[in-house]
Amino acid sequence: MSAYLLKTKTLLTFDPLAPVLNDQCLLIEDGIIRQIAPEADFALIECERIDATDKLVMPGLINAHHHFYSSLVTGLGKAEPARDFQGVLENLWWRLDKQLLSEDNYISALVSALTAIRKGTTTIIDHHASPFAVSGSLSQIAKAVSETGLRASLCYEVSDRDGEAVTADGIAENADWIRQCEASGDRMLRGLFGMHAAFTLSDKSLELISTFVQELGCGTHIHAAEADSDQQFNLKTFGRRVIPRLDSFTLINRNSILAHGIYLDDSELDTIASRGAALVTNPQSNLNNAVGIADVLKMSQKGILVGLGTDAMTVNMLEELRVGLWAQHLKQNNPNAAFMELASTLVFNNPRIAQKYWGQGLGMLAKGHAADLILVDYDPHTPLDENTWLGHVIFGISQASVDSTMVNGRFLMWNRELLLDLDETEIKAKSRELAEKLWSRF
Ligand SMILES: [Zn+2]
Hints:
Layout: E1 4-12, E2 20-22, E3 25-29, E4 32-37, E5 48-59, E6 61-66, H1 85-96, H2 102-119, E7 121-126, H3 137-148, E8 151-154, H4 164-184, E9 189-191, E10 193-197, H5 203-216, E11 220-224, H6 228-238, H7 242-248, E12 257-260, H8 266-275, E13 278-281, H9 283-288, H10 296-301, E14 305-308, H11 317-332, H12 339-358, E15 373-376, H13 389-396, E16 402-407, E17 410-414, E18 417-418, H14 424-441
Parallel strand pairs: 1-5, 6-7, 7-8, 8-9, 10-11, 11-12, 12-13, 13-14
Antiparallel strand pairs: 1-2, 1-3, 3-4, 5-15, 15-16, 16-17, 17-18
The structure holds zinc ion.
């Protein structure tokens, strides 16, 4: 890949030490930012020059908890009304995921990834379920992700709810995928060991999963205490709360992602902090399911690395961030609460989470980091500087359009046109066709 120079006027770096740089050029080579300096410093370098001075340039965004497979649900109105979270799972998600076929897994990942490019999300940490199309499901998703050029970490959510054979398939799918990722040396794809939630996994299954996790030396990705019913079930059935139970099987480690965590007590938060695991909050999903609002302020004060995910409600991370902040104000009953804690989930913490898996600088524009960035149509109408940039991200840039998206040094979208060897119109038509079939089986 040849080197080129991206000329910028306003550059948001997400680097807390130098968050806003003006009139700088990025020298990009082989997917990496080699240097950031004024144009004069590159006078002797002969390479292609790309002018982005009429846009705001910032890092590509990271989604730390997503479900590609839910793409085909948009517009589905057939689910029975639910009284609570268990009802949402039983009436919608656990009916839907049983019907997913291999081709649904592929197309739903493809349409979601294309939307992500359009919204400026360049890395997605996904959590997949298709209990009657388990084997090879992660490879189908990986195929879609690779065709779009995004980065993704994949896992299959193991659960006992569909019988022992499906549990075994799920365990094998995770193990196969993680081994395949390591063997391939693909710089864009990663894997975690997925579990649905502690309330759908027996001790026997957790024991078996733990054996694989220790042997593979991998991280885990699980829904934890999304609703109080998770805690009550674990207490009643196993005599332990969610986190002590998972921890007793050594399933919470430095590379773990625990999604939601709304109903965790102080002791559980302390355990997560001591293990160095990430807790990923998904405010829009939690509001939609009426399960509550995570106490992000307290999690942060406990020293936990708190990330931001969308739980498939959107792939637009800035929309999720805004709602997360409003929800936290309500949670804390204070309109000034948790601004830095919430902003940090997306801007500083998601990059730290992703860096654990990719082993290189991600989500921050700095020398030696991955060239994952977006160009946004945003000409600030108030001063944008190192004191105001986070306010601009939440209140201003979130309302602007993403013009161009680069991942691994390659433009996947330029001037709102996808630069991919894919026919988006055809993909949408295929998606509508498969969604209609899926809905008829639902
Ligand atoms: Zn989820």
